[in-house]
Design goal:
The chain is an alpha/beta fold. The chain has one domain: Rossmann fold. Helix content is about 35%, strand content about 20%. The protein has a nine-stranded mixed sheet, with helices on both faces. Strand 6, helix 6 and strand 7 form a beta-alpha-beta unit.
Length: about 325
């Protein structure tokens, strides 16, 4: 199997985390379940089974949930019992722009809340195909503005998969439009983001077998549904093509067995070239969405701890 080191060597801005012995059996069991269904999730019919998977993330202790609207966008708050006042994370859920919900992702976001001791809001942005690009990005911006209008002085942005795409897009937008709202931003974390909607990354070939979830034809159809004829090279859609000068500090986490690996690698390379405080963490043996294995996978627990440390440090500055 091709490894990250064989693909990219080593760089000062990247860290490769080895595949632990304790995770190997758990990942083998997961693959046995996932691989027979590889590439089959398509269209709006996949929303219920996708949400059911995310509902299975272990619930964190000491976190309470509350439905709300922020900036006119519905969603869910995830509040740890020891939350620091005025420290907030907006977590943008994944689902290839076609699936996912704030309620289904509340436990994953709740773990981020517990690690950072900050309340996390998960917006229910509009989904394709009913609401194609740029509806989701517009909802995310409205939600961020809504958080600042509530007087929240320190805000971090996190997102996974397509949510990572939207998170990085929002970060780029705020960097390009410095105003009162951008002053609250402290940094961001993207988990396996889709940064190139033309799907040109080499890992669509080099990880085609290793990735147990996605195929390129499947992803192509989901992206087509989202873009609805829009140019995938538009920086507003594909953050890989955005001007990243002035971007807030970011951390990107990705599994080495993901078809989306190169989307993370190329984005961090682009960010470093623009002078951004950025780092890439690659997790050997891990697949897309591995953070959802928190409580079961050592890699998930370690990644969550690193995310918590980074965001806590950003809040402290």
């Amino acid at each position: 199997m091709v490894t990250f080191l064989e693909d990219h060597g080593t760089a000062p801005w990247s860290v490769l985390h080895p595949f632990s012995t304790e995770d190997q059996a758990a990942m083998a069991a997961m693959r046995a379940i996932a691989e027979p269904n590889k590439g089959r999730l398509q269209g709006t019919a996949a929303r219920s089974p996708f949400d059911a998977v995310m509902e299975g993330v272990t619930a964190p202790a000491g976190v309470v949930y509350e439905a709300d609207h922020v900036g006119g966008i519905p969603g869910w708050w995830c509040r740890p019992e020891d939350a620091r006042p005025h420290h907030t994370v907006m977590h943008i859920h994944g689902g290839w722009f076609n699936w996912g919900s704030a309620q289904a992702f509340r436990h994953l976001a709740g773990h981020i809340a517990a690690q950072t001791r900050a309340a996390v809001f998960v917006p229910d942005y509009q989904l394709a195909p009913e609401h194609p690009f740029p509806a989701a990005a517009e909802d995310i911006r409205a939600c961020y503005i809504g958080l600042t209008e509530r007087g929240l002085s320190k805000i971090a942005i996190t997102g996974d998969s397509a949510g990572g795409t939207l998170a990085l897009g929002l970060l780029a937008h705020l960097a390009a439009n410095s105003d009162g709202a951008s002053k609250a931003l402290v940094g961001g974390v993207a988990l396996s983001p889709v940064t190139d909607l033309s799907l040109s990354g080499e890992s669509w070939a080099t990880r085609a077998v290793a990735d147990p979830y996605f195929t390129k034809p499947q992803a192509t159809e989901l992206v087509r549904s989202y873009l609805h004829g829009h140019d995938p090279a538009d920086p507003l859609a594909s953050p890989l093509h955005a001007d990243l000068e002035g971007l807030a500090p970011i951390r990107v986490h990705v599994g080495d067995d993901e078809a989306l690996l190169d989307d993370s690698v190329r984005f961090v390379q682009h960010a470093i070239a623009a002078g951004v405080d950025a780092r890439l963490d690659v997790w050997e043996g891990m697949v897309h969405g591995f953070l959802g294995g928190v409580g079961r996978l050592a890699a998930s627990n370690e990644a969550l701890q690193l995310i918590g440390e980074f965001l806590s440090n950003r809040f402290a500055e």
